[in-house]
Sequence to fold (229 residues):
Amino acid sequence: MAVGIVVVSHSARLADGVKELAGQMAGAEVKIAATGGGPDDTLGTNAVQIEAAINRVYGDDGVLILVDLGSAVLSAEVAVESLPPERQEHVLISNAPLVEGAVVATVEASIGASLLNVEAAAVRAGSMPKVER
Amino acid sequence: MSTEQIEVQVTNEHGLHARPAALFVQTAARFQSDIRLRNLSKAGSRPVNARSIMEVLTAGIDQGSRIELTAEGDDASDALHALRELIEGRLSSPSS
Fold:
């Protein structure tokens, strides 16, 4: 097993795209679920859908949830609180940026890192320079 | 326990970034040995943990970089062999 990854965005297409990108970094051993978007192609996030996404990738090593902005965090918090208590303690909402965080978290998960180590690596991805100046 | 060290040149187009870096870290993680990576082409660079994707990405290994790999542990030799094969073989072929 490996830590499961949930990608939450206000845009369903963005969530799917981040999943696609992160999925290129790891083999099939890392389960990634993407969720986001409101009804009729609108933007939004939905706690019930996030909860379902968590359950799709849940395993003994836990789940890291990567979120884009603002209310995605609130929806993710509600989703986590809706889980059975024994699952809640193995699910973490990440402080990492969505794209870099998802890519780095997926690689760390693929080598069997613990949930806390996957989150630590994902957060560090946010301070990685893109251009040398 | 043994400690072994090799030098390899990274020839693939993207260096050890993105997917090649992921493959490198995943290969290093298959072994018990402690594996360190140092970018010889960047002045003052320190050895980093080869199993950490963040440390490998920030080592800034580009196409043409020479790297030093040091492994310490019972499977040090096998680990370095596998990493050399990855860098000189699979990563340097156009399909990757």
About this structure: Chain A has one domain: 6-61+73-112. The domain at 6-61+73-112 of chain A is CATH 3.40.50.510 (Rossmann fold). The two ends of chain A are 40 Å apart (CA to CA).
